[in-house]
């Protein structure tokens, strides 16, 4: 299978109802019928978190969501009284990871990455208590056009990349391929065009550590599908964990829709098909546009594959980065990041250096650098094409 980042999220308008106290064995099908009562034209999607016995139900408007809360709170479902709460901070954000870890607790609305550091950010410290001295460089060009020639390239850019499973990362180490969420592709391509090296720092969900880091070795474009065919058949044929799209017909209460089952990555949700009126609104100039459904035969849902060169797979526990903050992400600690978050270059360089200072005490199986670390290369490194 193709290594990839977090899967597609259910359709959301920002008006969500948290539902708790679900009985064991609850299914998405039962829930969508229950929460569609008197709201068949308003329900948008439903995300089930079986391990926590709870779910999130998304409605199209605030009014319909509030009405649903009053209608279903303390209602009976399979003999159990449900608990319902409005989730005020449920406005959708494209970079928020999906799955139980992202949906189990309310999250504050995210802020856009800051492009200028605060005048006096706190000095980060290492796990040993030593102050890290940051020499923050100004960005005179950062790929912007110059009057006397083509855009200037910066030396390095750094991004945090999330994966829902350790298996996806291990597969990427074997075949040198990754695919990110589609909304991250433009930022990574721009970085690839404007920097000599773009480093991706990987972490598996709920692992409490960084898995390793790699360098982008190709841009992300439509030719990436050819990379899949270049992967050995023993790797490409592993499709048992491919997400499934299961159509659901309209019932007495619920509209027609589909279940997206990505159980291998802890994600299962139902979403209603858009109405004819909504489809018309989404068509430019009223013309008919093809719509790609999410299913096992549409790998583009997960983004286009691109090549990466793994440099280190030493594990770096989050506690070792304590005190290291990213001024481009509201000065939060680096461990607090979405998939695709860019790191301030000085912070990114310090973070990847930590991978090469680790000994056998690091979490996970010890590994050696797969490539020379930045700064040990003679001259600028060329990208293979």
From TrEMBL:
InterPro entries: Nucleotide-bd_a/b_plait_sf (IPR012677), RBD_domain_sf (IPR035979), RRM_dom (IPR000504), RRM_YTH1 (IPR057720), YTH_domain (IPR007275), YTH_prot (IPR045168). The keyword RNA-binding applies. This is Cleavage and polyadenylation specificity factor CPSF30. Pfam families: RRM_YTH1, YTH. Residues 15-89 form the RRM domain. Residues 234-245 have a biased composition (Polar residues). Residues 273-282 have a biased composition (Acidic residues). It comes from Diplodia seriata. GO terms for molecular function: mRNA binding; N6-methyladenosine-containing RNA reader activity. The keyword Nucleotide-binding does not apply. It comes from the Eukaryota. Gene3D superfamilies: 3.30.70.330, ph1033 like domains. One of its GO terms (cellular component) is nucleoplasm.
């Amino acid at each position: 299978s193709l290594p990839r980042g977090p899967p597609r999220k259910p359709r959301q308008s920002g008006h969500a109802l948290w539902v708790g106290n679900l009985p064991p064995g609850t299914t998405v099908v039962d829930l969508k019928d229950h929460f569609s009562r008197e709201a068949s034209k308003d329900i948008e999607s439903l995300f089930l978190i079986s391990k926590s016995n709870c779910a999130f139900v998304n409605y199209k408007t605030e009014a319909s969501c509030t009405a649903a809360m009053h209608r279903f709170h303390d209602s009976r479902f399979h003999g159990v009284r449900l608990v319902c709460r409005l989730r005020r901070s449920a406005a959708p954000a494209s970079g928020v990871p999906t799955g139980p870890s992202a949906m189990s607790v309310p999250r504050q609305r995210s802020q856009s990455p800051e492009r200028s550091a605060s005048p006096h950010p706190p000095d980060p410290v290492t796990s040993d208590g030593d102050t890290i001295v940051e020499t923050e460089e100004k960005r005179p060009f950062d790929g912007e056009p110059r009057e006397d020639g083509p855009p200037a390239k910066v030396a390095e850019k750094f991004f945090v990349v999330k994966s829902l499973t350790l298996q996806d990362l291990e597969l990427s180490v074997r075949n040198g391929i990754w695919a990110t969420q589609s909304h991250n592709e433009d930022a990574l391509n721009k970085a690839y065009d404007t920097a000599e090296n773009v480093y991706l720092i990987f972490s598996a969900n709920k692992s409490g550590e960084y898995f390793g880091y790699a360098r982008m070795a190709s841009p992300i474009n439509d030719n990436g599908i050819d990379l899949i065919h270049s992967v050995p058949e023993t790797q490409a044929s592993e499709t048992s964990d491919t997400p499934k799209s299961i159509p659901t017909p309209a019932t007495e209460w619920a509209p027609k829709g589909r279940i997206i089952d990505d159980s291998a990555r802890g994600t299962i949700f139902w979403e209603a098909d858009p109405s004819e009126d909504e489809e018309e609104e989404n068509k430019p100039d009223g013309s008919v546009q093809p719509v790609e459904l999410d299913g096992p035969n549409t790998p583009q849902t997960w983004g286009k594959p691109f090549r990466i060169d793994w440099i280190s797979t030493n594990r770096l526990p989050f506690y070792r980065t304590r005190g290291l903050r990213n001024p481009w992400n509201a000065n939060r600690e680096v461990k607090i990041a979405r998939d695709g978050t860019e790191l301030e270059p000085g912070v990114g360089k310090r973070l990847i250096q930590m991978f090469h200072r680790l000994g056998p005490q690091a979490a996970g199986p010890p590994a050696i650098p797969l490539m020379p670390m930045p700064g040990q290369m003679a001259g600028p490194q060329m990208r293979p094409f």
